[in-house]
Amino acid sequence: MTDWKTRCARRKQSQLDSIPREWLIEAPPANQMNVMQIPRDSALLSIRELEITETVDVEVILQKLASTEWSSVEVTTAFYKRAIIAQQLTNCLTEIFVEKALQRAKELDDILQATSKVSGPLHGLPISLKDQFTMKGLETIMGYVGWIGRYADSDCVLVEILYECGAVPFVRTNVPQTLMWGETYNHVFGRTVNPYNRYLTAGGSSGGEGALLAIKGSPLGVGTDIGGSLRIPSAFCGLYTLRPSYERLPYCGAVNALEGQESISSVLGPMANSMSGVKVFTKAIIDAKPWLKDPLAIRKDWSDKEYGLVYHGGGERLCFGIMWDNGVVRPHPPLHRAMLITKRALEAAGHIVLDWEPHRHLEIYKNSETIFVADGGEDYRVSCELSGEPLIQSMLPDEGAHETALEEPYVKRLVGPPYHRNTYELWNLHKEKRELRKSHLDHWEATISRTGTGRPIDAIISPAVAYAAVPHGLNTDSFYTTLCNAMDYATSVFPVTFVDATLDHRHPPHEFYNHEDEAIYNLYNSGLFDGCPVGLQLIGRTQEEEAVIAMTEIVDRALRRFEKFHA
Fold first, then answer.
1. Which residues are in the Amidase domain (predicted)?
2. Contacts for 382 with CB less than 8 Å, ≥ 6 apart
3. Spatial distance between the Cα atoms of 286 and 240, rounded to a whole number of angstroms
C-alpha cells in the first residue's frame, strides 16, 4: 500500500498538472506579504478581463451576460485565469476542471444565442464551491488523504439546482482536515493563506473560498458553516456572507464531517464581494424549490414581504443592539472601532443603536462544543485511518510559527478530556440546548421594553471574531460565531474598515475573563494586523434570511454614506 505522504505528493502534482501552462505566473518573493495587486500587475489578464473580474456587483455581471455584452465563455475564462493566479499566490483551490467549465459556458452561450432567453437566474455565472459539494465525475477529498480517488457518481442537490439556474460551477476550494477548524490546512493540498497578508490565515473552514474571493478569482462562492466557517473567512478576507438557518438551503448529497450529528446542523451559504451576490444566490436557490429535491429543506418560498421588513417597521427606524463584548473574549481595538463606526453610521441614518447585553453566552458555547465532540473524536479517527495519516492537532506551521502564549484553548478546559458520551448524555445536551434557546429568545423579546419602537431589538451587531486575521495557527476564537449556530440565528457578515496602525492603538489591560482572553489581548500589535479587513456580523432571528439580507443592505448603505461624508 502506498504511504500517505506519497499519495499526497501525487495528488498535489496532479492538481498542478491540471493548470494550463500559459496561466502560470512568476512567483512573488516569499517575503511579499500582500499579493492583492498581483492579478492586475501580472499581465496575464487583458484589460477586458480585468474589467470583468473587478466587477463586484453580481447583478451587473448577470445583466451583461443576459444582454450578451459579455459571453459566459469570456466571463468564465476571465475568472478562471484569475482563480489560477489566486491559487499560485494563496493555495486556495482543490479541483481544477477548466475544460468541463468552459464546455458548460459555451452550451449556455449557444442556448442564449438560439433562443434569446437566459437559462435561469444565474445564467452564465461562474460559481466556486467549497470542497464538500459533490460533482459527478470529480473527486471530493474534503481534506482527507483517505478520500483521494473518491469520485462522485452524481451531483449533490445544490449543484443540480445551480445547473438548473444556469450557473457554471468552475472550481472547488480548499478546506482543513476534519472541517472543524477556523483555518485551512490539510495534508493533501496544504495551507491556504490570506492575500492581504500571507503571514496570516484566511480563516476556515471555508478559507479557500475566502482567499479566492478576496483576490476576485470568483464572482460568487459557496461555503458552509457549523460554528463560523462562512463568517470567519468572510471577516478575515473583507467579504459579505449569509449563514442561513438550519435547512433553509439544500445540503443533501454534499459530504461533511460529523454526519449524523443533527442537533447543530451545518448550513451552506454564499460568499461574495457584494451584498447583491448574497441576495441573488439565496433567492435563486429558494425560488428553485429545494424541498422538492432535499427532504430536509424547509418548504418556505422567498418572501418579498419579509425582505421588505414588514416585521421590522418597514426598515424606516430600525433598532440595533451592539455586542461590544461577549463576556468571554474582548475584541481587539480595530473591532471596537468598527463597531463605533457602524453605530455612528446607523444613527446618522436615523436608526436606534443600543447596547446588547450578552445572555448565557459561555453556557451556550460550552453546550455546543460538547455536542461537537460527543463521539470522542471517532469520526476524525475513522477518516484518518483510511490512509494512516495523522490527525492534525494544531494549525501552527512546522517552521516560522508566530509566538503564542496560549498553550491550550479555553474550549478544551470548558469541555474537558475527550470521551465517547453515551446516548443519554447526548440527549441531555440536546435538552440543555433547547432550554438555552428558549432562554435566549425570552431575553431578546424582553428588549421591547427599551427600544422605543414597539418591537424588540431588530438585529444584533457584533464581531464575527475578536480580531482581524491572525498568524497561522492562532485562530482559536469562535465564541462570537458559534452563538448563532447554537441558537440557529440567520446571520450575515459585512466589511466595515481596515486595521489602521495610526488609529488602532492597544487598549489598556482589562480584568481578563479567562486565560485565552489574556492571550488574545497580548497578541494585539497594530503593526502585525495593519491593512487587514475588519468585518462584523449582523444577527437576526431563525428563518429570517430575507430580513437579515435587507437589514445588512441598510447597514452597508449607511456605512458607505457615512464613509463618503467623513472621509
1. 74-548
2. none
3. 19
Here the cell at position 443 is 431575553
d(CA 385, CA 1): 13
Please give the span between the terminal C-alpha atoms of the chain, in angstroms, as a whole number: 62
In 3D, which of 456, 469, 473, 479 has the Cα closest to residue 529? Answer: 469
**Distance between CA atoms of residues 266 and 261, nearest Å:** 9
For strands 93-96 and 126-130, give the pairing: unpaired
- Quote the radius of gyration of the chain (alpha carbons, Å): 22
Q: Report pLDDT for 2.
A: 79
Instruction: Concatenate the DSSP letters of all residues of 230-284 into one string.
Output: THHHHHHHT-EEEEPPTTSS--TT---SSTT--SS--EEEEEESSHHHHHHHHHH
DSSP string, 112-131: HHHHSS-SSTTTT-EEEEET
Question: CA-to-CA distance for 567 and 564, rounded, in angstroms?
Answer: 6
Residue-wise pLDDT tens digits, 424-446:
999 999 999 999 999 999 999 99
Q: Please check whether residue 363 is in contact with residue 436, taking contact to mean a CB–CB distance below 8 angstroms.
A: yes
Measured N-to-C along each axis, helices 275-287 and 58-66 cross at an angle, to the nearest 10 degrees, of 60
* SS3 assignment, position 287: helix
Note whether 521 and 512 are within 8 A (CB). Answer: yes
List CB contacts of 25: < 8 A, sequence separation 6 or more. Answer: 38, 42, 44, 85, 88
Q: What are the catalytic residues?
A: 130, 205, 229
- pLDDT for res 349: 98
Write out pLDDT tens, residues 66-124.
999 999 999 999 999 999 999 999 999 999 999 999 999 999 999 999 999 999 999 99
- How many other C-beta atoms can be found within 10 angstroms of the C-beta atom of residue 137? 12
Alpha-carbon gap, residue 363 to 89, rounded angstroms: 40
Extract the runs of DSSP E, i.e. beta strands, from 303-386: 319-322, 352-355
pLDDT digit string (tens) for 7-35? 999 999 999 999 999 999 999 999 999 99
CA–CA distances in Å: residue 77 to residues 81, 89, 187 = 6, 18, 29
| 318 and 459 Cβ atoms separated by less than 8 Å | yes
pLDDT attached to residue 506? 96
Q: In degrees, to the nearest 5, what angle opens at C-alpha 93 toward C-alphas 237 and 217?
A: 55
| Nearest Cα residue to 88 out of 38, 46, 40 | 38
Confidence class for position 522, pLDDT limits 50, 70, 90: very high
Give the rounded distance of the alpha carbon of 556 from its chain centre: 18
Please give the model's pTM, rounded to 2 decimal places. 0.98
Output DSSP code: residue 291: G
Q: Is 419 helix (H, G, I), strand (E, B) or coil?
A: coil
Answer whether 129's CB lies under 8 Å from 169's CB.
Answer: yes
Q: What percent of the chain stands above pLDDT 70?
A: 100
- Confidence category of residue 405, pLDDT binned at 50, 70, 90: confident
User: Is residue 439 classed exposed, middle or buried when 0-12, 13-18 and 19+ CB atoms within 10 A define those classes?
Assistant: middle
Coil vs helix vs strand at 89: helix
Report pLDDT for 1.
61
- What is the C-alpha to C-alpha distance for residues 248 and 219, in angstroms, rounded to an integer? 23
